[in-house]
Amino acid sequence: MTKAPDTSRDHLSEDELLALLDPELLPRHIAIIMDGNGRWAELRRLPRIAGHAEGIKSVREIITLCRDLDIGALTIYAFSQENWKRPANEINALMLLLENYLQTEMNELTRKGARFRAIGRVDTLPSGALSWVRRVERETAHLDKLMLNVALSYGGRSEIVDAVRRLAEDVQAGRVQSESIDEAFLEGYLSTHGLPDPDLLIRTSGETRISNFLLWQLAYTEMFFTPTLWPDFRRREALLALLDYQKRERRFGQVPDAASQGGR
Ligand code: IPE
Ligand code: IPE
Ligand code: MG
């Protein structure tokens, strides 16, 4: 059965929504599957790339909101390994858009104190986009207000494969004893190492699947699915997602009382 949309807060302004948020219960890390750009464009009889371009405005707003709310980490899914199967013209346009975004946004990210990092098999990106990725990573490496991970040519399974491969090399070289491998140790080989797991995953566009995103890290993440298409997902929508998140009871497998003491 589909849940009826919660319209009880439709009349509230953004400031009123903001005031409803409990600052003690904000997620420390948000992950987002930014989906629905193509459909946004198709609805307006525009080329799909117009939807991707509009989606960048949402990216900007969400980064600003995370910074304003002191949410320390944001991981956004921009291009999956599976997305290489799309038509060449869409891929090329997306890569140009990425390059353009990094070029024009580097100063803004710096001003916001955001440290940019690409996760995924980034070396497979075309050289123009790749050199901007590396440049913005270098230029923002000293910033720590917001950790901004952008998943590019990313797949959750290959991230685990890559981690296991490097771990196996370390074992073979005698740097690691296999008995010392536990969950925390393996986590150290993942691209998100050192960050808390996402507390909240948002997926736009009505799809309710993970699409090979952060398979390890999402083990106990709260999921928020919305029919809103990514280019329409702005500050207000994000505030509603955060309010929904704050209603959740996170149990981590425990009974309710114990979880409220040992949870977030
Ligand atoms: C998400 O939007 C962005 C990328 C995957 C690059 P889509 O391009 O998947 O948009 P829809 O799902 O076709 O509407
Ligand atoms: C997931 O969206 C990847 C990104 C948002 C970058 P897709 O549109 O590629 O996912 P599927 O194909 O609907 O699962
Ligand atoms: Mg899609």
Tell me what you see in this structure:
The protein has 264 residues and is an alpha/beta fold. It has a domain at 26-156 and 197-246: Undecaprenyl pyrophosphate synthetase (3-Layer(aba) Sandwich). The protein contains 9 helices and 6 strands. The protein has helices at 14-20, 37-43, 48-68, 88-112, 127-139, 156-172, 183-187, 235-246, 256-262; strands spanning 29-33, 73-80, 114-119, 146-154, 200-203, 222-225. It has a 6-stranded parallel beta sheet with strand order 3-4-2-1-5-6, with helices on both faces. Helix 2 (37-43) packs across helix 3 and helix 4 packs parallel to helix 5. It is globular, with a radius of gyration of 19 Å. The model has no long low-confidence stretch (mean pLDDT 95). It binds 3-methylbut-3-enyl trihydrogen diphosphate (IPE) (2 copies) and magnesium ion (MG). One 3-methylbut-3-enyl trihydrogen diphosphate is lined by residues 34-39, 79, 83, 94, 205. One 3-methylbut-3-enyl trihydrogen diphosphate binds next to helix 2.
